[in-house]
Design goal:
Number of helices: 13
Shape: elongated
Oligomer: single chain
Strand content: under 5%
CATH architecture of the largest domain: Up-down Bundle
Number of strands: 0
Low-confidence stretches: none
Radius of gyration: 32 Å
Largest sheet: none
Distance between the termini: 40 Å
Helix content: 55-70%
Order of helices and strands: HHHHHHHHHHHHH
CATH topology of the largest domain: Four Helix Bundle (Hemerythrin (Met), subunit A)
CATH class of the largest domain: Mainly Alpha
Mean pLDDT: 83
Length: 293
């Protein structure tokens, strides 16, 4: 669903667009002089003149993103941020027109804004997915069946064109087909029932949580008692190899104990066998030692 501004915002956007389009464009020499004054002398007036002269470029790029249902004013503001970033980084000595350089920054800023706000579900986390998001409609327009659903052959062609997987194309097509819907939205106008009222709660109930915490504490106590039955050297091996976030290597322990790493491995295996035997004596069924999934 497209976003519609209120009348006051529409008039403000229109006034800004008209003002931007009335500003004269710069020729190459004026553009170079302003960019050089800003880069070499930090002349703020030169920076403002450069940015204001290319505000129409922001408006032009924003028009390309109008079909994503986002506020035009927000798109323009994001584009202005990209324009200012381009002005701050522009190097006039490279013999590239500022408009060419700035277009990439403006488009990138607007694309990031669209991806952040088009859906409450994050979209386009990789470069390939971003390319798919912004090119799917264009490629669909090249397919003869027009607005009809894509066939598997069509989807494969798009996947090949954009170098993405077939499943990525299918998933993005589904995303475009349906809009976000609030869980608090009523199912019918005449009912107080909401969509979330009919969604199953897969989280454990309070009783299961309490039982799980108690069982976990019991298993931890059993393990501590089992470890206390090991020799001091076996305890140190188990602690450093199995109970640390980043276990040390066999070679490291071998140097610590003055033995070969193969001997350390044998001691570790013997200690693990003792622990398993001690823990199994606590239960009748082995699966009872494992926490519920």
């Amino acid at each position: 669903m497209a976003y519609i501004d209120d009348p006051i915002t529409q008039r403000a956007n229109l006034d800004y667009i008209k003002a931007a389009m009335r500003r004269p464009l710069l020729d190459r020499s004026d553009e170079f002089a302003l960019a050089e004054r800003w880069r070499n002398h930090k002349d703020a007036k030169a920076l403002h003149a450069l940015i204001n002269s290319y505000a129409r470029l922001v408006v032009s790029v924003a028009a390309r993103f109008r079909n994503y249902g986002l506020p035009t004013g927000d798109l323009i503001q994001e584009g202005n941020v990209g324009l200012m970033q381009a002005a701050a980084r522009f190097e006039p000595d490279r013999a590239v027109r500022f408009s060419t350089y700035a277009t990439w920054w403006i488009r990138s800023a607007m694309q990031d804004y669209v991806l952040r706000n088009w859906s409450i579900v994050r979209t386009g986390t990789t470069a390939a997915q971003k390319s798919l998001f912004f090119n799917l409609r264009r490629l669909r327009g090249k397919i003869e069946n027009g607005g009809e659903s894509l066939t598997d052959e069509n989807r494969q062609w798009i996947a090949d064109q954009l170098k993405v997987g077939l499943s990525d194309v299918t998933e993005m097509e589904i995303r475009f087909a349906g809009a976000d819907q609030s869980l608090n939205a009523p199912l019918r106008d005449s009912s107080d029932d909401e969509l979330q009222d009919f969604m199953p709660d897969t989280a454990p109930n309070p009783e299961d949580v309490v039982i799980g915490l108690r069982d976990s504490a019991t298993r931890s106590r059993w393990l501590a008692e089992a470890i206390s039955g090991l020799t001091p050297r076996e305890q140190q091996i188990i602690r450093l190899r199995r109970l640390e976030d980043e276990g040390v290597t066999l070679e490291y322990l071998g140097k610590e104990f003055g033995i070969s790493k193969e001997r350390v491995r044998q001691l570790e295996q013997r200690a693990m066998h003792k622990l398993r035997a001690a823990m199994m004596r606590r239960v009748e069924i082995r699966s009872d030692l494992l926490p519920p999934v």
